[in-house]
UniProtKB/TrEMBL annotation:
The keyword Transmembrane helix does not apply. InterPro entries: Homeodomain-like_sf (IPR009057), HTH_AraC (IPR018060), HTH_AraC-typ_CS (IPR018062), RmlC-like_jellyroll (IPR014710), RmlC_Cupin_sf (IPR011051). Keywords: DNA-binding, Transcription, Transcription regulation. It comes from Serpentinicella alkaliphila. One of its GO terms (molecular function) is DNA-binding transcription factor activity. It comes from the Bacteria. The keyword DNA-binding applies. This is AraC family transcriptional regulator. SUPFAM superfamilies: Homeodomain-like, RmlC-like cupins. Pfam families: HTH_18. Residues 138-236 form the HTH araC/xylS-type domain.
Amino acid sequence: MNFLKKIECQRRVYTSKYQTHSHAYGQLILPLQGSMNIKTSSFDYEVDDRHLFYIPPDCVHTFYSNNINEFLVIDIPLEVFNGLGINKYGKELYQILDDRWKAIRYLILEEINYKAYGGSLVNLIKYMTSVLFQNNIPTSIQYINDNYSQQLTVENLAAMEHFNVSYYCQWFFNQTGMTPNEYIQNLRLEKAKILLQETELSLLEISQIVGYSHQSSLSRLFQKKEALSPGYFRKMRR
């Protein structure tokens, strides 16, 4: 298990300066205070006190923070994944910071604080990686992730989990911290942001790509979530 000793566990603070890079190792980011924004080729993520984020090897990402912050950052070399028999490390992961992850974070911090880089940390890292990469995304949530631009109904999503609508909405909130509609809106919003920044597509075209028939629907979503118009967002980010 000597390969596990190559893992770096550190407390880190991020600034408001936009920085872009990639690295040859995987990186797990667990919030301690404040929040930060991370943009990849797929989405813009806000890593706050309710979420954790995993950046896979060679993933180009931009990051910054506009508030007081501190994060527990764990750098995981490829040989660690290989040594543990993990081969699904190539995709970014944005997960709820649930009680299990809070316990893992606490125990790793204790190891760091006391510089106890022994068997306990080795076992923690093994457990952490198994939790991170286990395939536990519920069917309906994965379906939303793959089909957010389609017309989705809570009734159909609830049926995928064999729940009634009322129970499903409560279950969904416990899983994600938001309602199904909020979750879908956030996915559409993040995709629209990327298209606004990286393409010359019209607002109507972008609206239709992310799942809205009318440009006005996307405009209302931007006003609600960002307090500005899509056009002004595009102008600001260029």
